[in-house]
Amino acid sequence: MNPGWLPGNPGPVPPTVVHLDPRREELAEQLWRRRVVLLSGRLDGPAAEAAVGRILLADADGPDPIQLHVHCPDGDLDAAVVLAETLQLVRARVIALAAGTVGGPVVGAYAAARVRRAHPHARFALTEPRAEFRGNAGQLAADVDLRAGQLRFLQETIAAATGHDRLGFGANRILTAAEAQAEGLVQEIVRHPR
């Protein structure tokens, strides 16, 4: 043992040990074979990039449906727009399943799927996306215009999915799966057979 990296002793940094759980890789492989994409946590750029990459690869593999399981209580506006545009462009039918809370701009991405299902206890948080702007007046104006256009695109996506424009991000309300189904956002509530 090298005493130079023991706590309290100056010296080299301890080696990084990476434990790969073979079950996790096996699960990912099984999901991939079944054309299932899991999306959970905050939807940020890297998460959207990974999901979009998997969806595009699955679409290139053939026309069979792609399942997108979503549990994202919040997300970045840019990431949600990229995901929504991808869901609108792929040839394969994307079946989105709300498996928990879907919130903020992620609701717009969820609405872009051709088939929208939800677990009975799923929730939809219609909250306006947060944004921070920095720069001079010209840069700020350009950023505000860009964000307004992105938000309008997601709201139009929700309106197209539901057939009305009653659901907006400024509502600051939370819908149950049943309420979202009544509004047309959810097409089917998935219940386990007894």
Low-confidence stretches: 1-6
Measured by DSSP, the beta-strand proportion falls in 15-25%
Q: Helix- and strand-based class?
A: alpha/beta
Taking the alpha carbons of the first and last residues, their distance comes to 57 Å
Order of helices and strands: HEHEHEHEEHEHE
Number of strands: 7
Q: Report the biggest beta sheet as strand number plus sense, adding barrel if it closes.
A: 7 strands, mixed
Count of DSSP-assigned helices: 6
Helix content: 40-55%
Using the alpha-carbon principal axes, give the shape.
globular
Using only C-alpha atoms, the radius of gyration works out to 20 Å
Mean pLDDT: 85
Molecular structure report:
By secondary structure, this protein is α/β, with parallel strands linked by helices. The chain has helices at 22-33, 45-61, 77-89, 106-111, 137-162, 177-183, and strands at residues 36-40, 66-72, 94-103, 115-118, 123-126, 173-176, 188-189. Strands 1, 2, 3, 4, 5, 6 and 7 form a 7-stranded mixed beta sheet that branches. Helix 4 (106-111) links the parallel strand 3 (94-103) and strand 4. Helix 2 runs parallel beside helix 3 (77-89) and helix 3 packs across helix 5.
